[in-house]
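To: structure desk
From: M.T.
Subject: fold request, one chain
Message: Could you run this one when you get a chance? Sequence is below, nothing fancy, just the single chain.
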Amino acid sequence: MRLLTRSNRQGGTVTRSRTLLLLVLSGAIFLEGVDVSMMGVALPSIREELGLATSELQWIVSAYVLGYGGFVLLGGRAADLLGRRRMFLSWMAVFIVFSALGGIADSGWLLILARFVTGVAAGFMAPAGLSIITSSFAEGSERNRALLIYAGVAAAGFSLGMVVGGLLTAIGWRWVFFAPVAMASLLMLAAMRVVPRDAERAAGAFDLSGALSLTAAMILLVFTVVRAPDVDVALTVVGLVGSAALLAAFVAVERRAAAPLVRLGILRSASLVRANVGTMLFIGAFVAFQFVAVLYLQELRDWSPVETGLALMVLGIDAILAPTLTPRLVERFGKLPVIGAGMVLAAVGYGLFLPLGPDWTYLQMLPTIVLVGVAFALAFGTLMIVATDGIAEHEQGLASGLQYVSLQFGAAVGLAVVAAVNVAATDGTSEAARLDGYQAALFVPVAAVLLALAVTATALPESRRASVIGACSST
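Reply: Done. Structure tokens follow.
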């Protein structure tokens, strides 16, 4: 089947220019996924060269999450108000500069700063890129196919990042920073040619008070979640209360603002809210599983980073299935059953990993890896479609920002919870004690994905049939 065919807009298929646009934007989200996942493989080498303590080391990852999660909603609204092309290109330039800074950093604090600003840049780029897609492709089969391709490539970035990271780290950990610089530079040159120019700036003032209160609340909440396994319970409670107070202040500001940063009425959309909650839980389950699997393979089985990455590479099967199989299933059965099937497959896959043994062969692990990859292909992109369906064009950036908030918080919460459970269940340093910790932690992804199934299965609206394939022809 030809995924994207050349035709005119009246025919309802995708023109060559929009095919190139989708390739460039998919390349950008692939880059973000790779940039996040390959960092974990490089951490031991970074620690060895820069002499970082464990507490400093985890901030190389956490700083990125803080920057991304704290600014992504602001990024979505900025794309709506200031221009999607403008935001995408400007922040890609920032991404390039600070990725390069990370590659030449000779101290821990400079590397952490570079990762924070890189996360901020990604927080502005991602919703701008997604809203360019949702505003450039007509709602229905054309947009659904574009989003499924986009989501499949994004997930493949996460899956392949560990392999890429292992190979680059074998050359030198600084290439984990320099390689994204080269790729982002090429993507930026292409984006300057294919991303449509912005219309005139949208009417309305920029809600600075709302932006500041929301960003502060997001940063404090992400910070609290990331630090939860390492600090006293009282400090975690203080952080949660503080973030709740800032969110309450934000709501109060938005109710009185003439041009609010977030139109609170958008949250009346049950499909948007449930799709975002489902996404948060689904991603949290995946991050939790990946965390346990990597620890098991590298710490208990002494697999190398490259071997671990290659073992998990099968998760990237969703990059093939998302644009090919998933559209057919959505057309035949509808969005809700496809999301539900993905959640069920994920639950079965994680469940099969629960009796993890000390000397499991790769063939014993493979069913879980395959099922999780297929689950991603079915659920991830389809949730993204539901989260942006029916949203007015001038709020597509906001809807996209909400979706990325769900992704980042899902990852942060999933990692924090699974790490806490693993630590609590590990009594000693022996192989048996560590295995007990891994087995206990594996209940986290199972519980999270079952909860996601319950949330999404109860009230997501469903049209009788979603025409996804449309007029695309097959070869």
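Reply (cont.): The two ends are 5 Å apart (CA to CA). Let me know if you need anything else for the meeting.
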